[in-house]
Amino acid sequence: MPVDRILKCIGCCLLLVTLTFCLAPHIKSIPDRVDAVEGFASLRLFDETSGGRSRFSFLFYLPRQARIDVSDFMGRTLFQIMVDGERGYFILPSRKVFWTGGEAEIMAKFLGFEMTLSEALGMISGVWGEENGVARNWRLEKDEEGRIVSGHRSNLRFWVEDFFPETATARTIGFEHPESSGRLKIMDIGFNPLRKGNALGLEALDGYTPKTWEEIRILMEHED
Question: What gap in Å lies between CA 104 and CA 114, rounded to an integer?
Answer without folding.
Answer: 5
